[in-house]
Protein backbone atom coordinates (compact mmCIF):
# COMPACT_ATOMS: atom_id res chain seq x y z
CA UNK A 1 0.00 0.00 0.00
CA UNK A 2 1.42 3.40 -0.96
CA UNK A 3 1.94 6.18 1.56
CA UNK A 4 -0.79 8.18 -0.16
CA UNK A 5 -3.31 5.39 0.33
CA UNK A 6 -2.21 4.93 3.96
CA UNK A 7 -2.68 8.63 4.68
CA UNK A 8 -6.10 8.70 3.00
CA UNK A 9 -7.21 5.58 4.86
CA UNK A 10 -6.06 7.11 8.15
CA UNK A 11 -8.04 10.30 7.48
CA UNK A 12 -11.20 8.31 6.75
CA UNK A 13 -10.75 6.06 9.78
CA UNK A 14 -10.05 8.98 12.11
CA UNK A 15 -13.15 10.84 10.98
CA UNK A 16 -15.27 7.68 11.13
CA UNK A 17 -14.06 6.95 14.66
CA UNK A 18 -14.93 10.48 15.80
CA UNK A 19 -18.41 10.16 14.27
CA UNK A 20 -19.01 6.85 16.02
CA UNK A 21 -17.77 8.24 19.34
CA UNK A 22 -20.05 11.27 19.04
CA UNK A 23 -23.01 9.05 18.17
CA UNK A 24 -22.42 7.16 21.40
CA UNK A 25 -22.45 10.29 23.57
CA UNK A 26 -25.64 11.88 22.24
CA UNK A 27 -27.80 12.95 25.15
CA UNK A 28 -30.99 14.73 26.14
CA UNK A 29 -29.67 18.02 24.79
CA UNK A 30 -29.88 16.61 21.27
CA UNK A 31 -33.49 15.60 21.95
CA UNK A 32 -34.15 19.10 23.27
CA UNK A 33 -32.70 20.58 20.07
CA UNK A 34 -34.99 18.41 17.95
CA UNK A 35 -38.00 19.46 20.07
CA UNK A 36 -37.09 23.13 19.62
CA UNK A 37 -36.87 22.61 15.85
CA UNK A 38 -40.14 20.67 15.78
CA UNK A 39 -42.00 23.42 17.67
CA UNK A 40 -40.58 26.24 15.55
CA UNK A 41 -43.28 28.08 13.65
CA UNK A 42 -40.80 30.13 11.64
CA UNK A 43 -37.50 29.49 9.93
CA UNK A 44 -34.23 27.97 11.07
CA UNK A 45 -31.49 30.56 10.75
CA UNK A 46 -28.09 28.86 10.66
CA UNK A 47 -25.03 30.95 11.51
CA UNK A 48 -21.30 30.49 11.99
CA UNK A 49 -17.96 31.83 10.78
CA UNK A 50 -14.99 30.24 9.06
CA UNK A 51 -15.22 26.51 8.46
CA UNK A 52 -18.24 26.34 10.78
CA UNK A 53 -19.95 28.87 8.53
CA UNK A 54 -19.26 26.81 5.43
CA UNK A 55 -20.65 23.71 7.14
CA UNK A 56 -23.58 25.78 8.45
CA UNK A 57 -24.53 26.84 4.94
CA UNK A 58 -24.67 23.18 3.95
CA UNK A 59 -26.77 22.33 7.02
CA UNK A 60 -29.23 25.11 6.09
CA UNK A 61 -29.45 23.63 2.58
CA UNK A 62 -30.07 20.15 3.99
CA UNK A 63 -32.80 21.45 6.30
CA UNK A 64 -34.45 23.17 3.34
CA UNK A 65 -34.20 19.96 1.29
CA UNK A 66 -36.05 18.07 4.00
CA UNK A 67 -38.85 20.62 4.18
CA UNK A 68 -37.69 22.90 7.00
CA UNK A 69 -37.64 26.57 5.96
CA UNK A 70 -34.08 27.68 6.62
CA UNK A 71 -31.26 29.90 5.46
CA UNK A 72 -27.66 30.73 6.34
CA UNK A 73 -26.80 34.13 7.84
CA UNK A 74 -23.20 35.20 8.31
CA UNK A 75 -22.77 36.80 11.77
CA UNK A 76 -20.87 39.78 10.36
CA UNK A 77 -23.70 40.50 7.94
CA UNK A 78 -26.14 40.06 10.82
CA UNK A 79 -24.41 42.89 12.71
CA UNK A 80 -24.72 45.10 9.64
CA UNK A 81 -28.47 44.88 9.19
CA UNK A 82 -29.33 41.27 8.46
CA UNK A 83 -30.55 40.60 12.02
CA UNK A 84 -33.80 42.08 10.74
CA UNK A 85 -34.37 38.85 8.82
CA UNK A 86 -34.82 36.98 12.10
CA UNK A 87 -38.38 36.83 13.40
CA UNK A 88 -39.56 35.98 16.93
CA UNK A 89 -40.99 32.70 15.54
CA UNK A 90 -37.60 31.58 14.20
CA UNK A 91 -34.85 29.54 15.82
CA UNK A 92 -31.12 30.15 15.43
CA UNK A 93 -28.71 27.27 14.98
CA UNK A 94 -25.32 28.73 15.95
CA UNK A 95 -22.16 26.79 15.14
CA UNK A 96 -18.65 27.38 16.48
CA UNK A 97 -16.32 24.55 17.42
CA UNK A 98 -14.57 26.72 20.00
CA UNK A 99 -17.84 28.33 21.09
CA UNK A 100 -15.97 31.63 21.26
CA UNK A 101 -16.05 33.03 17.71
CA UNK A 102 -16.23 36.74 18.36
CA UNK A 103 -18.51 37.67 15.46
CA UNK A 104 -20.98 34.97 16.43
CA UNK A 105 -20.97 35.63 20.17
CA UNK A 106 -21.63 39.35 19.54
CA UNK A 107 -24.97 38.72 17.82
CA UNK A 108 -26.36 36.34 20.46
CA UNK A 109 -27.55 38.99 22.96
CA UNK A 110 -29.54 40.63 20.14
CA UNK A 111 -31.04 37.29 19.12
CA UNK A 112 -32.00 36.59 22.75
CA UNK A 113 -33.52 40.06 23.10
CA UNK A 114 -36.00 39.11 20.37
CA UNK A 115 -36.95 35.99 22.35
CA UNK A 116 -35.57 33.68 19.67
CA UNK A 117 -34.46 30.21 20.78
CA UNK A 118 -30.82 29.29 20.17
CA UNK A 119 -29.55 25.81 19.44
CA UNK A 120 -25.80 25.64 19.44
CA UNK A 121 -23.09 23.23 18.40
CA UNK A 122 -19.68 23.58 20.05
CA UNK A 123 -17.17 21.56 22.02
CA UNK A 124 -18.13 22.92 25.45
CA UNK A 125 -21.39 23.97 27.05
CA UNK A 126 -19.27 26.22 29.29
CA UNK A 127 -18.31 28.28 26.21
CA UNK A 128 -19.86 31.68 25.51
CA UNK A 129 -22.01 30.07 22.82
CA UNK A 130 -23.09 27.29 25.16
CA UNK A 131 -24.17 29.78 27.82
CA UNK A 132 -26.58 31.51 25.40
CA UNK A 133 -28.13 28.23 24.25
CA UNK A 134 -31.59 26.84 24.86
CA UNK A 135 -30.29 23.49 23.55
CA UNK A 136 -26.63 22.54 23.25
CA UNK A 137 -25.14 19.87 21.00
CA UNK A 138 -21.66 18.84 22.05
CA UNK A 139 -19.03 18.27 19.38
CA UNK A 140 -16.54 16.19 21.32
CA UNK A 141 -13.52 15.70 19.07
CA UNK A 142 -10.47 13.94 20.48
CA UNK A 143 -8.43 13.89 17.28
CA UNK A 144 -8.55 15.78 14.01
CA UNK A 145 -7.48 13.81 10.93
CA UNK A 146 -4.85 16.45 10.20
CA UNK A 147 -1.38 15.03 11.03
CA UNK A 148 -0.70 18.12 13.18
CA UNK A 149 -4.15 17.85 14.86
CA UNK A 150 -4.79 21.46 13.82
CA UNK A 151 -6.88 21.68 10.63
CA UNK A 152 -10.61 21.21 11.32
CA UNK A 153 -11.19 17.87 9.67
CA UNK A 154 -13.01 15.50 12.02
CA UNK A 155 -14.69 18.46 13.74
CA UNK A 156 -16.22 19.76 10.50
CA UNK A 157 -17.26 16.24 9.52
CA UNK A 158 -18.95 15.75 12.91
CA UNK A 159 -20.66 19.14 12.67
CA UNK A 160 -22.07 18.31 9.25
CA UNK A 161 -23.21 14.88 10.37
CA UNK A 162 -24.85 16.34 13.49
CA UNK A 163 -26.69 18.82 11.26
CA UNK A 164 -27.84 15.95 9.06
CA UNK A 165 -29.09 14.11 12.15
CA UNK A 166 -31.07 17.20 13.20
CA UNK A 167 -32.63 17.42 9.75
CA UNK A 168 -33.94 13.89 9.81
Let me know the average pLDDT.
96
- Computed Rg: 16 Å
Globally, the shape reads: globular
- Kindly name the structural category: alpha/beta
Number of helices: 7
Strand count, sense and closure of the main sheet? Answer: 5 strands, parallel
* Uncertain runs: none
| Major sheet strand order | 2-1-3-4-5
**H-E order:** HHEHEHEHEHEH
Helix content: 40-55%
Q: Beta fraction of the residues?
A: 5-15%
Query: End-to-end span in angstroms?
Result: 38 Å
How many beta strands in the DSSP annotation?
Answer: 5
Description:
Helix 6 links the parallel strand 4 and strand 5. The chain contains 7 helices and 5 strands; from the N terminus they run ααβαβαβαβαβα. The chain starts with a helix and ends with a helix. It has a 5-stranded parallel β-sheet with strand order 2-1-3-4-5, sandwiched between helices. By secondary structure, it is α/β, with parallel strands linked by helices. The longest helix is centred in the N-terminal third of the chain and has 22 residues.
Quick overview of this protein structure:
The chain has helices at 3-24, 28-39, 50-65, 75-79, 102-113, 128-132, 154-167; strands spanning 44-48, 70-72, 91-95, 117-122, 135-138.
Amino acid sequence: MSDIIKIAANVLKTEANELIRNAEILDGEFEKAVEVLYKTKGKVVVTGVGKSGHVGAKIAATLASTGTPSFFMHPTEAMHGDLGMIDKNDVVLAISFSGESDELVKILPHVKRFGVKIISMARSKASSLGKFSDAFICLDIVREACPLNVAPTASTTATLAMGDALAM
